[in-house]
């Protein structure tokens, strides 16, 4: 309760500072709308089916991207972490691909995949892969050899050790990687929607709001909603981690 109260005080202080800056004569009137105007516009947008469709499109695409990234990264991490020869053979390729920003691949993705939702989902999957993959690999590095030897003494094969010993031991690391990957996927998703000419999503809503006469209150509405989605994703995955791997 004390931490919750301090969090509320921090949020209240941030909003008060934002309100003062938004109404200050030091800034142009339309440069930084105060939160009183932004949240009024937020309430109005939440009753708009069009805005809700943008939010749903972004959230659904993020969830799909996370699911695909998990399906690819966890098995790949188990293989790379448990078979040193494969890990060493692929290290150079992985270290080359990992630092490439997803937004730098937008032109290539547009040429190959077009302007559909496949482009933003693919780029979000690419960005979300790495935290899950490396957390899975590092988890296997921390695996107690005594557990492996004990399971083998009882007749467990290589595949059985992988799924009965290695994967449960790696689960806390994997969930941490998924939590990091979720926020990364959201950032990339909104960025691609904003930069790649998407026709739906929060990024597209922000792009439309800033064009023409420029509605900064709507731009900040999209930004606030994107931040709220990120907080909900992070909090939900943290609860899952505490529930599943409280030990």
UniProtKB/TrEMBL annotation:
<dbReference type="Pfam" id="PF00528">
    <property type="entry name" value="BPD_transp_1"/>
</dbReference>
<dbReference type="GO" id="GO:0005886">
    <property type="term" value="C:plasma membrane"/>
</dbReference>
<dbReference type="InterPro" id="IPR035906">
    <property type="entry name" value="MetI-like_sf"/>
</dbReference>
<keyword id="KW-0472">Membrane</keyword>
<feature type="transmembrane region" description="Helical">
    <location>
        <begin position="186"/>
        <end position="207"/>
    </location>
</feature>
<keyword id="KW-0812">Transmembrane</keyword>
<dbReference type="InterPro" id="IPR000515">
    <property type="entry name" value="MetI-like"/>
</dbReference>
<feature type="transmembrane region" description="Helical">
    <location>
        <begin position="219"/>
        <end position="237"/>
    </location>
</feature>
<protein>
    <submittedName>
        <fullName>NitT/TauT family transport system permease protein</fullName>
    </submittedName>
</protein>
<feature type="domain" description="ABC transmembrane type-1">
    <location>
        <begin position="55"/>
        <end position="237"/>
    </location>
</feature>
<feature type="transmembrane region" description="Helical">
    <location>
        <begin position="96"/>
        <end position="115"/>
    </location>
</feature>
<feature type="transmembrane region" description="Helical">
    <location>
        <begin position="161"/>
        <end position="180"/>
    </location>
</feature>
<keyword id="KW-1003">Cell membrane</keyword>
<keyword id="KW-0813">Transport</keyword>
<feature type="transmembrane region" description="Helical">
    <location>
        <begin position="52"/>
        <end position="75"/>
    </location>
</feature>
<comment type="similarity">
    <text>Belongs to the binding-protein-dependent transport system permease family.</text>
</comment>
<feature type="transmembrane region" description="Helical">
    <location>
        <begin position="121"/>
        <end position="140"/>
    </location>
</feature>
<keyword id="KW-1133">Transmembrane helix</keyword>
<dbReference type="GO" id="GO:0055085">
    <property type="term" value="P:transmembrane transport"/>
</dbReference>
């Amino acid at each position: 309760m004390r931490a919750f109260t301090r969090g509320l005080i921090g949020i209240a202080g941030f909003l008060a500072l934002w309100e003062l800056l938004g109404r200050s004569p030091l800034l142009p009137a339309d440069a930084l709308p105060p939160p009183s105007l932004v949240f009024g516009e937020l309430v109005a947008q939440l009753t708009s089916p069009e805005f809700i469709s943008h939010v749903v499109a972004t959230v659904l695409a993020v969830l799909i991207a996370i699911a695909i990234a998990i399906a690819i990264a966890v098995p790949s991490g188990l293989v790379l972490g448990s078979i040193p020869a494969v890990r060493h053979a692929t290290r150079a390729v992985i270290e080359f691909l990992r630092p490439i920003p997803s937004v730098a691949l937008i032109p290539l993705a547009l040429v190959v995949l077009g302007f559909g939702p496949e482009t933003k989902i693919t780029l979000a999957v690419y960005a979300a892969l790495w935290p899950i993959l490396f957390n899975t690999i590092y988890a296997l590095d921390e695996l107690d050899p005594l557990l492996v030897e004990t399971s083998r003494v009882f007749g467990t094969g290589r595949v059985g050790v992988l799924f009965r010993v290695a994967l449960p031991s790696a689960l806390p690391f994997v969930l941490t990687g998924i939590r990091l990957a979720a926020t990364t996927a959201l950032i990339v998703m909104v960025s691609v929607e904003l930069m790649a000419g998407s026709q739906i999503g929060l990024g597209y809503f922000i792009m439309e709001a800033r064009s023409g006469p420029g509605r900064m209150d709507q731009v900040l509405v999209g930004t606030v909603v994107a931040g709220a989605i990120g907080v909900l994703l992070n909090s939900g995955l943290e609860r899952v981690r505490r529930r599943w791997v409280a030990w």
